[in-house]
Structures are given as C-alpha cells and as structure tokens.
Amino acid sequence: MPVIDVWAQHPTPRFSGHEMFASLRRWTGEPALTEDLPVARTLAAMDAGGVDQALISAWHGPEGALISNDEVAGFAAQAPGRLFGVASVDLRRPMDAVRELRRAVRELGFRALRVVPWLWELPPNDRRYYPLYAECVELGIPFCTQVGHTGPLRTSETGRPIPYLDDVALDFPELTIVAGHIGYPWTAEMIAVATKYPNVHIDTSACTVRRYPAELVTYLGGHGRRKDLFGTNYPMIPAEKALAGFAELALDEEARDLFLAGNARRVFGL
Measured between alpha carbons, how far is 33 from 122 in angstroms, rounded to an integer? Predict the structure, then answer.
C-alpha cells in the first residue's frame, strides 16, 4: 500500500529549538535538537510508518531561514526518489521571493511552495503573497499553506479558510492549493472551500487518524476522495503514530489509495 507524506520537515537545530515550538516540545516530550540530525533518521521514521516518499519543506520566517532551501536540497540529494523539496521564501521582499522560488524549482527540483501564514502574521489574501501565486501558476507547482488553529503560541486567525483562502481561490482559479492541518476548528469551512474550487485540496498533517473529525472522514471517503492527501507534520508526529487505526476508517480501496498516495502523485507530479 504506497504512502506519500505531503507535509514533513527534516529538522535543523535552528528549527527544532525555536522558542515558538516550545508548546509542541511540551506536548510531544521531545527535546530540541542540539546537533544536526542524520537524514537516515528521517528515512527510518518513514520506513517505520510505511511511507515511501515524503515532501520535506524549508522554513523561512521574519527572522530568516530556520531550514533553508539549500539545506532541503542537500537532504533530498541524500535520498533520491524518497525525499522531495518544498520551497520557502521571504514574504517581505516579493521580487527576491519570486526569484528564489524560480531557483528552487528550476535548479533544485523542488515540487511546491509552502508559506505558513501564522509565522508572518499575514493571511493568504495579503498582497505580498500575490506575486508568488502568479509564479506558482507559471511554474506549474502547488501552493501549500496551513489552515486552522496553531499549535505554537501564535495567532490562529490567519488560518481561517473563509475568507482568506476563499479569496485566493477566486483570484487565482489556476492555482493549485494544498491546505494542511485540516482546518480545525473550521474543518467544515475548509471542506466547503475544497468542494467549491476544483484546485483546492486538504492535507491531514498535524492530526492522527483517530483525531480526524467525522465530517472529514465522510468527505475523504465520499465526494472528496480526490481532494484529500495524507500528511504527518514529521517530526512532530511520525507516520507510524499518524496512521495508527487507519483501517478503522473503513475506506473503500479507491478512496484509500487516492488518500495515501494517488492524489499526492497527481498534485505534486511525483
């Protein structure tokens, strides 16, 4: 049963030890990294959860790169065919951000752009995102973002699907959008937006199977079967934990295969 994880990170000490993740470290009981983590450790966690491929993201925020695009490219180069890069850029410098996105895709082979709105305290319909949306369309890659409340102690308002992603999908009908973390407590809003727009998708990162809201389970087993993608948010949640109890969802074979891998192959060109 092939599995693709569409939201993961191979963490650096800068990322792992950042103060904004203190609440997550408290919940998981995992200490911050004090030295670089071998790529083999991430691959071993994937193997333990039956994950064949993972999209690993860079992280860039107002303070700079916590995981740089070049670091991600280096990690992916150590596991060809298994790890694929997702770019991150500096929203404050729109033209530099566009150029960096082009470089990441054309030279580094990255498959998507991810911007985490709460990190910037800017919702996705802010004007500073718009040059990047146009470039994603031109490059033929998805825009990945976070919806719902935040685990880190930062504002959750930027994660509301309506009006923010609703506005973006209206303005950029050609843009493929992947909204991670299911949108809780606005999951019904997120399902409504994904249903409304052909190019809007939901990924289940940061949630274990047993915490999927009932309306999401109904959606991924029904008319939303081509709209949902599996994600973990590794290393916060390893795949083995994220997928525990998956059989209890009682999905039919098509819905299961699309959710775990088929939709990700199509959306990210894997």
Answer: 28
Distance (Å, rounded) from C-alpha 212 to C-alpha 189? 15
Half-sphere exposure (CA, 13 Å, Cβ side) for 207?
A: 26
pLDDT of residue 152: 84
Distance CA 21, CA 30 (A): 11
Domains observed in the chain: 4-268 (3.20.20.140)
For residue range 52-65, list pLDDT tens digits in order.
999 999 999 998 99
DSSP letter at 235 equals T
Neighbours of 240 (CB within 10 A): 15
CA 171, distance to chain mean position in Å, is: 22
pTM of this prediction? Answer: 0.96
> Could you give the angle at which helices 94-106 and 130-139 cross, rounded to 10 degrees?
20
Number of CB atoms found within 10 A of residue 209's CB: 17
- Give the pLDDT mean for 94-121: 97
- Give first-to-last CA distance, the chain, whole Å: 16
Distance between CA 203 and CA 177 in Å, rounded?
Answer: 10
CA-wise closest residue to 34 among 11, 57, 66: 11
> What confidence score (pLDDT) does residue 112 get?
98
What six digits make up the tokens of 123? 């919702």
Query: 248 pairs with which residues across the strands?
Result: none
Q: What is the DSSP letter of 237?
A: S
Query: Bridge partners of 268?
Result: none
Backbone angles phi, psi at 7, to 5 degrees: -140, 100
Give, as one character, the DSSP assignment of residue 79: S
28: its two tokens? 């998981």
- The dihedral built from the CA positions of residue 37, 43, 44 and 50, taken in this order, carries a sign that is positive
